[in-house]
């Protein structure tokens, strides 16, 4: 996280999304420790969750100094920390195709859905170059 913070300090117009999806054998104390490290590392760079995504833009984030969005899959922690974004606000659908036309259509549809439902869509792909 320190390297990410150095990058963001050197590049104030960049935004990073940290997506924490799977936790194995973490108790509430471990979650608190992880969140504490994020707070100490990123401080004011953490972007509080915004229910209405139409009020969030790269420009508004740059102006406020927010550069880090943290998507977190632990509901108990989300209730305690305003900068943790719930998984439901940031779906990450999987296209499950190797066809470029289907992938393009899938990603374009995701963009349309995100605008209608006011969600931040995270696109996942695996690219193999032959």
What does this entry look like structurally?
The chain has about 130 residues and is mainly α. The chain folds into two domains: about 1-85, no CATH class; about 90-130, no CATH class. Helix content is about 40%, strand content about 10%. It is built from five helices and three strands. Strands 1-2-3 form a three-stranded parallel beta sheet. The longest helix is centred in the C-terminal third of the chain and has 18 residues, at about 100-115. The N and C termini lie far apart (about 35 Å).
Helix percentage: 40-55%
Class inferred from helices and paired strands:
mainly alpha
Radius of gyration: 16 Å
Write the element-wise H/E pattern from the N-terminal end onward.
Answer: HEHHEHEH
Figure out the total of helices. Answer: 5
Please count the beta strands (DSSP E, at least 2 residues each).
Answer: 3
Strand numbers in spatial order across the main sheet? 1-2-3
Quick tags:
three-stranded parallel beta sheet, 130 residues
How is the secondary structure organized here?
Elements (H helix, E strand, L loop, with lengths): L1 H9 L5 E5 L7 H15 L15 H7 L3 E5 L2 H6 L3 E3 L13 H18 L13
Parallel strand pairs: 1-2, 2-3
Short summary:
The chain is built from five helices and three strands. By secondary structure, it is mostly helical. Helix 4 links the parallel strand 2 and strand 3.
